[in-house]
Amino acid sequence: MNIENTQSQMRKGVLEFCILSIIKRGEVYPSDIIDEMKKANLNILEGTLYPLLTRLKNADLLTYRWVESTGGPPRKYFSLTDKGAAFYAELEATWNELAGAVQALTQNGVNINSGNFNQ
Q1: Rounded to whole angstroms, how far apart are CA atoms 111 and 78?
Q2: pLDDT tens digits, 101-112
Q3: I want to staple 62 with a disulfide (CB 3.0 to 4.6 A). Which of 20, 57, 83, 116 is the partner?
């Protein structure tokens, strides 16, 4: 097995949740998302981020506004819509349940009859 492939798949699985977590804090410019992700050691390229932002916008989870820039072209700032905030809340609940289940399995062991995480 290729560990790099498995690591990549794990990161891809949480990418959308992480990006929405950043946007949830307030209006954000895409390069700020990239910087935040780098600080968390989850590097993302513009070529990955922009299509994801477009997909989330097309699903009515994000909105954006243009802001004039003194040093270049106008900038697009993204924020969550009400639908996006509700979607984020569902992702957060799923993440918390999944993270708890994984922690129980990897650190403490778990009684297989007591778990309630469903795929």
Answers
A1: 43
A2: 999 999 976 565
A3: 57
